[in-house]
Amino acid sequence: MKSKAKTLIVEYAQIVIGSFIGALSLTMFLVPNKVAAGGLSGLATVLYYLFKLPVGWTMLVLNIPLFVAAVVFLGKGVGIKTIVGTLLFSLFTEMTAGFPVVTTDLLLATVYGGILLGIGLGIIFRVRGSTGGTDLAAMILNHFISSISIGQGIMIIDFFVIILSGITFSWELAMYAWIALFISSKVIDIIQEGFNYAKAVYIISNETEAISQRILSDMQRGLTFLKAEGGFTRQDKNVLLCVITRMEVSKLKNIVYQTDPRAFVIIHDVHEVLGEGFTYKND
Q: What pLDDT shows up at residue 280?
């Protein structure tokens, strides 16, 4: 029980930190420069410049009907973490509204605002939290139109918000908003998937036994034999699977081609590796 309570405290602390970072991206970069990077925050930015409505409280007010609809149609689809994340994001946005604007350069504001927003949301998403808004709207849209996935729903909503910003402000600012949205999405992926980048290597060869022995002895890396069948010869083959760090790629390729110059090697990126020789994670 103590371990579970400790985990919950850490997760909610991350929601607090993520909400604060996300709020800073709005008040210090995006909102002052009229960059409405999708979602309810983007819609609130447009409404702020049209009617002088405070961004934080506007986001909260817009979230209320979404919460009600989500509870009615989705039931348990709305969790406590979503409620906490939404409240904190709006609260911190208002608390930091008086913070100094870092830059009025549109490109710098777009890039750094997108990065900060991605970091904040990524931290929240990593502990299965949410800030409501677009996520809830997309879930409700998916409930009524099952052919539209939640990811597609988010894209559709963001598209219309940015189009609205283009009509309200200018199409140039709308293009900057697309850049901010793209950057924040990529940063969210990095935060979600982790920084522990590695390479997964598949080796198809008639000398898999010799290659595996050299990998085990020279690199001290584990590997796995996969059973396969040649598509042309229909003969049984062993395929070696090995996960290595980026710095070990050259060494592995040398081992393979010194042993079997005709070997077929596939190398691709792995964003997070958990296990012996890399990292462990306890949920």
A: 53
